[in-house]
Amino acid sequence: MFKYKTDLLLASKTVIAVLISVALTFWWLNPMGMFYTIYTAASIGLMQAGTSRRAQFLAMLFAALSYIALYILGVYFRPNYFLARALLIPFAFIAYYLPNAGLTYRLPPIMGVIVYLVVMMMPMDPFNPGATMLGMAIGSMVAILIYFYLWYYNAEDELLLIMLEITEAYSNAIQVLLSWTHKSRQLAQDKLEAILHFCEGHIASFEQIKAHPEVFKKHAKFFDATEDALYGISKILWVYIDVLPKLSTMNLRVYFPLIRDTNRTLQLQINRLTIAFEHGFFTRRILHRSLGASRNALSMLTRQQNPRPALSLSEFEAALLKIVKLVESKTHKSSEEIASLRLAFGLLRIKELYTDLKIAETNKGK
Amino acid sequence: MRWQKLLNPNTTTRMALRAACAALLCILFTQHFYLTRGYWAILTALSLITPSLGTSIYQSSMRFIMTIVGCFIGWGIYIAFKYQPEILTLITLIILFIMVYTLYHNFILRMIVTGIAVVILFSFIGGWDLQLLWVRAYETLIGAVIAVLVNALIFPEFAKNNVQRELKLLLEKIFKMADDIATTNTLPELKRLSHRRKELDQTRITLERHYEYARYELFLRKNKSLYYDKLHLEINLLCFYFQAMLNIKISALKYPDSVRAYLAASGTEYYQERIDQELTNLRAIASATQKP
């Protein structure tokens, strides 16, 4: 149901932060003060620019202070009608100009300007601003504590989640391919494209995390190992989308149903392959090697996936080759179908080999 | 040199200037027409300052429509649970959850739930009626129109120009890459090419983003739009074939035995054919796209 697990965590944390802030303030704060408290508690959690704990803490602290400062300014200048409105212009300029000074996210100053705007222009006067400020400070503290101490995830965990979600999407793609028929072609293609867009969205998140120099320096090996697999999965899906419609016009029709229906041995091989993909064949191998020491990563893997025995690379390869051979015998070893089949299966193999090669080189370098 | 820099500021500075102008315009407008809830217009205008005109047009139109939709839904919820504040509180929490969850993925849904949240919030602090809905609608419209005007007039940046620039860059890279892949046969060079292929992918993603926004600038004619769609597909495939070819060549160099060599040998031939075919298609489509 929820595609984006990291955002699911963030949304749940935000709701909890708001609930706690309300519980702490509702009995002594007026409704408008409650509004500012809820606004602060809800948005501080979103202000975590950077990926190290320290950078995130500083960004959130900066956001909390700017909210409170702009609230004070709003209350102070509110009686002076023209000055209060005139000040909005430089504030708006500064909010958008600050990223030039090296701030990675432009959201905190803009949200702060919104606080100033609301205080300054709301028809009703601010009631007991001191209490409201205290409420905002409590909201900020609660949000920061919740962010760091409840289901906190660091860069590795986030990357791992991305990888697991992509593996899941990829496994879904395999299911779509297995149930591929000429009649439901458009539907299957749409599904594949949706999965692809999902994967590409995640690759963008991956790039975003990677772009942070601090993280990149710390986890260079991890990025090196995972990058190819991520790109590979996305690209392989593109090929499926391109190749399958072409296949359906050939003699072979669509080879997945053919494989599935005609032969029990093949059926078994397909099952094994599916299990391999379900296990996150790509991710699992790579993650075990590059994140071997991380308890978090391993425990998350065990939580997310059923503890079934994984296929070794050689077993996987043997399964692939058997399928190619059997289809070759069915189609009298001819023509483009075999090339297409190699395209579909062989590439997975080559991609994996390439990743293995890179890991082997890294180990040699050590 | 300094003057040149001042006259041609970067995107962030341009956005800052636009934001300041939008704030000024909104204040003047609300002053002149005595708008009692002018903050809605200012809020809308400030949050719709975007890097390019196309983005601004898209987001402004969506913001206006979805705000009205959200306000109507919110009003319905308010009428239904007017005397049950517990249920309204629960709905507020659900809406907050959806707002945060969709923050980075779904602009339209976020706008709708924001509309609902505003109605429920006002119901807590003073009540909501049709009059307020009407005020919110036209003030959002004012803010959206000012945002589009400012984005179009103050140091404007057009997604259409970005598309042309990125496309030219991408095509140059693709043709160079195709030549290099065909002629390179050493492992370090192939690895360097593999890295370059990833950069190519980034350029492609940037191009697609600019193109999506350029659609809203209304400068793309229908037939051109079609060509861009085809280009998108061709470039995607080519990027894949390049990587596949590189992987095969690297595998063949590193593992020259049995199955690997077999796959590599047949794969090279297969992919070279595909690359040639796609390059021919790409040249034809690109020349058609560049015609006025």
Question: How would you summarize this macromolecular structure in one to three sentences?
Answer:
The complex is a heterodimer of chains A (366) and B (292). Chain A is an all-alpha fold.
Shape of chain A: globular
Number of DSSP-assigned strands of chain B: 0
End-to-end separation of chain B in angstroms reads 34 Å
Oligomeric organization of the protein chains: heterodimer
What proportion of the residues of chain B form beta strands (DSSP E)?
under 5%
What pattern of helices and strands is seen along the backbone of chain B? HHHHHHHHHHH
Helical residue percent of chain B?
Answer: over 70%
Care to count the β-strands of chain A? 0
| Helix/strand class of chain A | mainly alpha
Unreliable parts of chain B? none
> Which regions of chain A contain 5 or more consecutive residues with pLDDT less than 50?
242-320, 330-358
Order of helices and strands of chain A: HHHHHHHHHHHHHHHH
Largest interface: A-B, 65 and 59 residues
Q: What best-fitting shape of chain B do the alpha-carbon axes yield?
A: elongated
Please explain how this structure is put together.
The complex is a heterodimer of chains A (366) and B (292). Chain A has 16 helices and no strands. Chain A has 366 residues and is mainly alpha-helical. About 30% of the residues of chain A have low confidence. Chain B is mainly alpha-helical and 292 residues long. In chain B, 84% of the residues lie in helices and 0% in strands. The radius of gyration of chain B is 26 Å and the shape is elongated. At the A-B interface, helix 1, helix 2, helix 4, helix 5 and helix 8 of A face helix 2, helix 3, helix 5, helix 6 and helix 9 of B.
List the helices and strands and how they pair.
The complex is a heterodimer of chains A (366) and B (292).
Chain A lengths: L4 H21 L5 H14 L8 H25 L3 H17 L9 H15 L7 H21 L5 H24 L6 H26 L2 H6 L1 H29 L6 H8 L1 H15 L2 H10 L4 H10 L8 H18 L4 H31 L1
Helix pairs in contact in A: 1-2, 1-6, 2-6, 3-5, 3-6, 4-5, 7-8, 7-10, 7-13, 7-14, 8-10, 10-13, 10-16, 11-12, 12-15, 15-16
Chain B lengths: L1 H6 L3 H22 L5 H10 L5 H28 L4 H17 L5 H19 L4 H24 L5 H25 L3 H28 L7 H33 L3 H33 L2
